[in-house]
Amino acid sequence: MARQKEEKTAGAAATPPSLPPFASAALMLDLDGTLIDFAPTPDAVVVPPALPQTLLRLRARLGGALAIVSGRPVEQVDALLPGIATAVAGEHGAAMRLVPDGPILRPDLPEPPRSWLDAAERLAGAHPGVLLERKRRGFVLHFRRAPAAGPALHDALAALLAGSERRFELMPAELAWEIRPIGVDKGAALRALLAVPPFAGRTPVYVGDDVTDRDAIAAAIAAGGVGLLVGDWFAGPAGVRAWLAAMAAAPDGRAGSQGTPDRDRE
Ligand SMILES: [Mg+2]
Hints:
With about 270 residues, the chain is an alpha/beta fold. The protein has 9 helices and 11 strands. It has a 7-stranded mixed beta sheet, sandwiched between helices. Strand 3 and strand 4 form a beta hairpin.
């Protein structure tokens, strides 16, 4: 497993499967760990300078059908990539902006009890390096800078949930634990996007890097589309960006083979 991962991150990325033509595709992309590299804290990420232009070109080729599907709040996604995505699903779908400059729609979901946030604050304070990220419908404890704290944080959060009615769940993320309302996941976000223009009627292509993306990958495949886990197909976010740039620059509309110049084409 570790060896396989090493090979992948060393650049031995697989050939992504054939994609639908631009005219019938909808591209839905995770942000952190997919388009941009992780940083020690969520605020410290850097958007590579060429990425916005690549995404804008793809959006144009896709008739606007480009969305970002992230665990971050919509406002953060839009601040990192201003004016880029037609739609943004934030907080794993608990907040959705469906049109450019449109309102952020929030399904009726519970907010976590104040006592849980107090407990999360105490946990962050007790483990130096642990960061509490508040969201409207939940919160995240990031332990990227304190990896040894992971199991203790998990157990403490699980204990909070165990004493409550089942309205929230504890989800693993990339070196983080997240508490969020049950029923919110990126698969549901993908399906919600596919119900509205310009995504409706198109074949979804989803790319994401972590466990929270598996729901969207499954939903994309169930909708007759393509779902790609970064670790299986790309050499990290840089590999995804190169693949997207190749597609954006490709002369014809078919996206499937442009990212793999070293392999035979049909
Ligand atoms: Mg990610």
